[in-house]
Amino acid sequence: MQVTETLNEGLKRKLAVVIPAKDLASRLDAKLEDLKGKAVIKGFRPGKVPVSHIKKVYGRSAMSEVLEEAINAGVSETLDQRSERAATQPKVDLPEDQAELNRILDGGADLAFDVSYEVLPPVKLMDFKGIKVEKPVVEVSDAEVDKELNRFFAQNKGFEDKGENGVVETGDHLGLSFVGTIDGTPFDGGTSDHAHLTVGSGEFIPGFEDQLIGMKKGETKDVKVTFPADYGQKSLAGKDAVFATTILHVDGPREGELDDEFAKKLGLENVAALREAIKSQMDAANASMARQHVKRQILDALDEGHKFDVPEQLVDAEFNTIWQRVVHEVEHHGRSFEDEGTTEEAAKEQYRKIAERRVRLGLVVAEIGNENKVEVTDDEHQQALIAEVRRFPGQEQQVYDYYRKNPTALASLRAPIFENKVVDFVADLAEQTEKKMSGEELGKLIQADDEYDVPEEHHH
Question: Model pTM?
Answer without folding.
Answer: 0.74
